[in-house]
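Q: For a teaching session next week I want to show students how multiple molecules come together into a single three-dimensional assembly. I've collected the sequence lines for a complex. Could you give me the predicted structure tokens for the whole thing so I can convert them for display?
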Amino acid sequence: QQQVKQSPQSLIVQKGGISIINCAYENTAFDYFPWYQQFPGKGPALLIAIRPDVSEKKEGRFTISFNKSAKQFSLHIMDSQPGDSATYFCAASAFGHNQGGKLIFGQGTELSVKP
Amino acid sequence: KAGVTQTPRYLIKTRGQQVTLSCSPISGHRSVSWYQQTPGQGLQFLFEYFSETQRNKGNFPGRFSGRQFSNSRSEMNVSTLELGDSALYLCASSLVRPDYEQYFGPGTRLTVT
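A: Of course. Below is the structure for the complete assembly, covering every listed component.
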């Protein structure tokens, strides 16, 4: 019940296209859903995060869509660029249950944006 | 503001030895969480410290331990190292309020031979 399932494992997108990564969870106590971007040799960097009280959040080219009833959330990268090529992780935590510091991560998606 | 710093960045140890890793959080952040990253298991939560107390713990054996000091700096220790402990160990710090946004350091790459 603690799992977060992420798909696809890898994704190839043309420059200018839309990259879409999906995640699903079971634990209804989860109430905080961040996305991280990781480049080789670096630690994960926080991209954008959402709480269940909103269905969508947009920051620049990055948008999170959240479906509470389906227990699914997704990351959309608009106008994908070669510099976006990295591994993306979704995560979840139960902030309201005093477990905000315990992130449960998906398995990651390796994104490659072709010029 | 300086980011999360971790030392050392790289470490090579022999099976059976013990190791201590250090993490300095972003100034003002009182929560420090530790994660293990491996190709096979991905990113797994080890434990979280807040105000010098362990607040949450993941599913790792007792060989993995940690502590937090009054200045919020944190250390994690792994005793009796096994080959499977080879991983990137990441720490992340958070303000906790109003949001639990966690900011990661660059990690310590531990290789056990």
